[in-house]
Predict the 3D structure of the following.
Amino acid sequence: MNEYTYPILFGVVIGTIARLVMLRTDYRQYPTYLHGKVIHISLGFIAASLGTVAVPAIMEKEFTAVTFLTIAASQFREVRNMERNTLTELDAYELVPRGNTYIEGIAVAFEGRNYLVIFTSFIATLTYLVWNIWFAIIASLVCYLIIRKFMSGATLKELVDIAHHELHFEGAGLYVDNIYIMNIGLPKRQEEIMKYGMGFILTPKNFNVRSTIANLGQRQAILHDASVSLGVFRDSGTPALVPLIKRDLDDGRIGVFILPQDKDIDKAKRIIGAVPVLENAIRMPSESKANKKGEDKG
Amino acid sequence: MKMEKAILAVITLNKEKIDGGAPIFLCDTQEEMEKVAANLEAILDGISHALSDQLYIIVKH
């Protein structure tokens, strides 16, 4: 026991709790129960230890100890690779795949959360050593609030208006409103699609959103989430029954065609609205300098 | 080059209108054509698309 024992213990515990708080298994069922969780809690514990130990090291004027953090960085990059590889492998066996953009988003989140743990532990131990445990607890709570804010990204309902539209066929062409989805030849398939299919139109609320929802990865994420939450009328060997999203080139609206097993319109709207906006799909054309200059002159 | 899409089979009532590489299935009636197309769709894991009332193709996507 020495003067650093309690601060280190405190920092490690706070960091591990922070990782636990960020590790929610929800409708995505990822990470899976127990085994997947154990991996991430262990890594969170390692991250917490690294963040904590950095503080006493600096106080003892062992500045080279900070190089440990670079090892941590490469370690957590490895976590990102691991998540990406696992999810990509599994994606081939999904009836409606997640898509690479969604997977990359999840992998980045896993890496990022470990850094948040390091940061939290660092702050917790630092405040404990500089002031006392009460300050440390307050600082940890502030960190917790910041983490919560980092964690929750935007959802689709903030970007688009969602409206239900009946599907219809013009000849063999399947349409949602005026957006062409696909050509279905067999009358029997057409009947199935009319019976089980649902159509939605997502209208972008502003110009930036247009390119975001046009992103193929974002569209696949919508289909995946809708299929997970509502079920999907599909099997291997029935490629005609595939949920699809197509875009109206004139105004950037997208037509969502899904084949849910639960045909509840309000529920479907809520689920589409709750789809996360993928970080990698976000575009901000309005932030471009060229755009702004045009405005000044005009 | 990786082929993204390919026509796996052509099912038709009207032989004069088609010629070429993909296997062609000639049918006598609309019902027969739909039946053949449905079977081929399941067997080949492709989607049957209607180009006209007399002409279906099975496409691998």
Observations:
- Residues 157-284 of chain A form one domain.
- Chain A has ten helices and seven strands.
- Residues 100-130 of chain A form the longest helix (31 residues).
